[in-house]
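User: Predict the complex with flavin-adenine dinucleotide.
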Amino acid sequence: MIPRYISNFDLTDIPRLYTDFLIIGTGIAGLYTALKACDGGKVTILTKRRLEDSNTDLAQGGIAAAIGTEDTPRLHLSDTLEAGAGLCDLPAVEVLVNEGPDCVMELVEIGTRFDRVEGHLALTREGAHRQRRILHARGDATGEEIRRALSDQVTRHPEIDVHEDIYLIDLLTEGNACYGALAWDLARQQKVAYLARSTVISTGGAGHLYLNTTNPGVATGDGIAAGFRAGARLADLEFIQFHPTALYHEDNPKFLVSEAVRGEGAILRNRLGERFMERYHPMADLAPRDVVARAIVDELRQTGEPCVFLDTKKLPVPFQERFPTIYQHCLQVGIDPSRDWIPVAPAAHYIMGGVRTDADGQTNLTNLFACGEAACTGVHGANRLASNSLLEGLVFGKRIATRMKKKRDDVSLRELHRFSSRSRGLGEPSGSLTQQAVQWRQRLQTIMWQDVGILRDGQGLSRAKETIRGLVEGSLGYELGGGSRLGDGQPDHPR
Ligand SMILES: Cc1cc2nc3c(=O)[nH]c(=O)nc-3n(C[C@H](O)[C@H](O)[C@H](O)COP(=O)(O)OP(=O)(O)OC[C@H]3O[C@@H](n4cnc5c(N)ncnc54)[C@H](O)[C@@H]3O)c2cc1C
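Assistant: Here is the predicted structure with flavin-adenine dinucleotide placed in the model:
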């Protein structure tokens, strides 16, 4: 059996900090939840590197909301459901599209500088959106601008403490309730316990499960794994979104060429210069992401080439003006998008599944919430609609804050002290599991890319499962067994 905790601890032996609301992760989900919760108690946010190290900071294309004159939440709902391939949770999508516009306007109010045309918010399109509804900032630096605006507010607020270089190890639980988190303080090289009335997992995605990904190094699925060990219900983990157009070069993370580039008129071409998306979907180059990614894999198989190309000649605005970040990055690797086709190939980008929550972000564990990419609210179904994930962090972060404040006094300080004065955890002797994980990392990424990637079949999935089982049992001596918590792949579709 895999031990409940990945590391031994005795809370009476390590520094303990008490807070009302513990938020783990400083992406859009964590920062916005903190801002919304801080009028109801003390908020502590942890992050394993610096505040800005997150998927949020890299988001390019924008954030979706039905604010255009021709648009409605109903139309946004229908595009979201269609992209989600029939597996979205309808009530959750209704929450997202109905509450989204207000949340986005709150971002504007706190100083997020979205791009404007003649004073009005500029709206673009991305794949599978039938309307222009994507707000963006500095062309293609939307995430960085949103993070800047949110972190300006968060770091100035007297009721919010941000602790950088603090690494979530495990959630602290007793029975069915969560009382905070055990973490590793990278600067002091010691364990530290954060005791909290409510805890929010907002640790983002897991792109680095794969050999090729657009995600930054922090996206290793830690919060989802900690939730799993604590007994939180997970869902939809099999749904990984592969972005069709990551710049084809050797670096990892792969640099993203935003879908908004196609939204503005760029066209995908194969090695022979043929426009191929019309053969795969009526929306051609603006088909949903999963369709485009599979079409590219199909083309690559036929031509034997490692990449296809984005032809940006027909953009109405000069490339360097509309997409300055992408332009600069391409120049650095010797491609001038105003003249050359951009070589692109798919890469792991986003995880639709995560810690299962209800519409208020509540997990099946008392006092434990999950938000953003680490959560599975059900809004994305099998395939996330472009620019819906930043929005999800806002909408459900706000709901979580409301719920946490309402139930603040359900857990007393006395209860937290009682828990921390007697809690111990049995896990691996310090270090051994972590050392193994470092050794396995590239092996695991290769297995996932080859057998659990864009195109999968039963044979490949079984091979991946057995190889991973062999790694765990062979190196650590854990018996996973047939019905183990590592799972026999039983899907969890509560919808
Ligand atoms: C290149 C790129 C472009 C994208 N473009 C768009 C876009 O245009 N529009 C859109 O809607 N979405 C986009 N996405 C997706 C979107 O950015 C993310 O899904 C969203 O930002 C997730 O926000 P989050 O707050 O849940 O997680 P993140 O922003 O990833 O934040 C997670 C936080 O948790 C911290 N963390 C992780 N593990 C630990 C640990 N063990 N201990 C402590 N802290 C930890 C991280 O350091 C980070 O601070 C893009 C993603 C990428 C990678």
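The first strand starts at residue 9 and ends at 10.
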